[in-house]
Amino acid sequence: MIKTLVFVHGWASSPDVWQKQEGCFSPSYEVILPDIGAARDIEQAANVVADSVKDEKDYVLIGWSLGWLAILELLKSFEVKPSGLVSVNSTAKFVDDGYLGTGPTKTHLAKMMRDCKRDPKRVLEEFCASAFADVSREALAGLDLCFSGDATRVSASSSFDYSSLLDGLEMLKMCDYRAYLQRIDIPTLLIAGALDPICPKEAAIYMQQHIRGSRLRIMDCRHAPFLARAEEFNTIIDSFVRGL
């Protein structure tokens, strides 16, 4: 029986993005929320997750965006044996070199990195406005990122650690786990947003084709289904976990 759910956040965020999952699942499971925000590279991010599960048994790893890449590095480099895996709006290789034919390119990411050096707050706000365009004010309440002005504009709070943005972009630039996917022999659920402009659904379809026995769920949302469609997302996670 699964005892623990480990939710790993993504780029430009913190563990509190999982507040709707922590509230839903904590009565029935131990919920662990590793903070990879201070990691300088993907190995450090994987170490953070490894430390969070070192005394755990019967756990499921759930990673959103960059958090899923940290989980892939964890699986590749550490002797861990989770009972299940969930990828949430992520990819095996963020930068498209033609293997998907869609999604962020090397040129696009290079521009983000240049802009981030000049004005990280603006880069973060542009990212959030795109990623969270379908998320309500209420759903973002209490996060490090909050609505400002109308519902389609997002501004970052003064407490956000902007220094982590470039490190995260460098991880997204360097990570490539395509060759590793075929080695995964753990029950895996892949969740994708049909409207996701950050990690297109084609990335999840690619992973489903390369991870044996994996399952794919495409939701009607953008980049953050756990906020935009929290109840549906939680039901999908609960069904997967209970089926392990």
3D architecture notes:
With 244 residues, the protein is of the alpha/beta class. It has a single domain, classed as Rossmann fold, CATH 3.40.50.1820. 40% of the residues lie in helices and 15% in strands. It has 10 helices and 8 strands. The chain has helices at residues 19-25, 42-53, 66-77, 106-118, 120-131, 137-140, 164-174, 201-210, 225-228, 230-242, and strands at residues 4-8, 30-32, 59-64, 84-88, 145-147, 154-156, 188-193, 215-219. Strands 2-1-3-4-7-8 form a 6-stranded parallel sheet, sandwiched between helices. It has a two-stranded antiparallel ribbon with strand order 5-6. The model is unreliable at 147-152 (pLDDT under 50).
The percent range for helix content is: 40-55%
Which spans of ≥5 residues are poorly predicted at pLDDT below 50?
147-152
Second rung of CATH, namely the architecture: 3-Layer(aba) Sandwich
Fourth-tier CATH superfamily name: Alpha/Beta hydrolase fold, catalytic domain
Q: Mind telling me the CATH class? A: Alpha Beta
Q: Can you list the strand order of the major beta sheet? A: 2-1-3-4-7-8
